[in-house]
Amino acid sequence: MFSERKVLLVVNPISGDLDKNEIFEAVIEKAEAEGYDLRIYSTSGKEDQAIIREMVENIKPERVIVAGGDGTISLVAQAVHDQDVILGIIPAGSANGLSVDFEIPADLVDSVNIAFGHNSINVDAVSINSEISLHLSDIGLNALLVKNYENSDTRGKLGYAKEMFKTLSEHENFQVRITTDQEVIETEALIVIIANAQKYGTGVNINPVGDMSDGFFELVIAKKLDFFETAKIIAGSTDLNPEIMKIISVEKAVIECLDKEVYFQIDGEYKGLVRRLEAKILKGYIKVAVP
What we know:
Blueprint: E1 6-11, H1 20-34, E2 37-42, H2 48-59, E3 63-68, H3 70-80, E4 86-91, H4 97-101, H5 108-115, E5 120-128, E6 131-133, E7 136-140, H6 141-150, H7 156-170, E8 174-179, E9 184-189, E10 191-195, E11 217-222, H8 227-234, E12 245-250, E13 252-257, E14 262-266, E15 269-274, E16 276-289
Parallel strand pairs: 1-2, 1-3, 3-4
Antiparallel strand pairs: 5-6, 5-16, 7-10, 7-14, 8-9, 8-13, 10-11, 11-12, 13-16, 14-15
Helix pairs in contact: 1-5, 2-3, 6-7
């Protein structure tokens, strides 16, 4: 006889370096120990969001556990939005920025225990041109890095490091106008980050004031590469030189690239070239299991 308590495990089979069989074994063991009826879905890249949504509506799980990177987590969050479920995270991507922000450890057993645990928080999202970002999205330098990484043959942190050198040689600054309820900023930029969270998957604290549950997102505007200002951000300082780096907290913003189309990525997934972005906060978008 099946348990009334159900959990759905969603696995991205091609993300990161972690052995997916180990994930299956760990989650199956935990589900049996906790008395859950476990269902499993492996993403294919085809209609995943709609399939997951239909499974959640039919199965009605208490929680949905995601094993993948930031892109997979964002996909599943959109699929279960407005459903009464808790989202659990098992870090299994090339870059695991969301798990870093939630302080979910890389250790498989620990992350599985947290995913099945009792602690959870409501997390905001950002709508960008009607697409959803849970973590960090940007235009400029990092989006070009994501594009180059997606097109490379090397996965993991080694792949990121390899593509960084190529990206730095290719990138060009751009002119941008940012309109918020508080001000209009027009400047040359290296990168503009739409930050719901604090840290990239590398652990770099690009947005020290970020809080994923405060009803705001930050715009981090870097005008040029500068070692000292970058070091301040990594150290968590907000005492930044406004001529080089600026951070503002907003509920909505319009970002216009004035001189060219610019590379754009959402939560680690390259989206193409853009000239204009409209971003707004979506408060309490999803409930996430945390330590």
